[in-house]
Every structure is written in structure tokens, then in C-alpha cells.
User: What shape does this take?
Amino acid sequence: MSDFVICINNDSNPASLILGKVYRTLPDAEAEAHHMLRIVDEDRSEPNGYLYPAAIFAPIELPEAARQVLMAAGD
Assistant: This one.
């Protein structure tokens, strides 16, 4: 899975996810085996992220400059 995804459906979580926003994924092989992604959402209250269905995101590739900024922002 990509390090970054874009939210394509927030119907079930409109308070936690913003449609069209780029989110960083956190590694979680067990979650991925169940078609879920670990994401740090809008409230950022859980540094280990929350699980969301992978189907509500699309993987994306970012230019290196954007990738570096977003990776640093998540630290």
C-alpha cells in the first residue's frame, strides 16, 4: 500500500475524515489483510491511528517535496 491515500468517501465518518484530503497511512499488515487501513484522522487524538475500510481511500503517489513535508508533519 502507498504511504499516502486520498479520502474518496467519508459518508460513514464525516467528522473524522475530509473528502478529498490526503492522509498518511501507518503500517499494519494485519489490518491490510482485512481490507482496512490505519490512518491518523482529523482529531489526531490517537497517534497510532484508527482503522478505516480501505475502500474509502485511493492510494496516491506524491511529488518528493510534498512527500517529505507530509512525512515530517506526521512526526
User: Anything to note?
Assistant: The chain is about 20% helix and 30% strand.
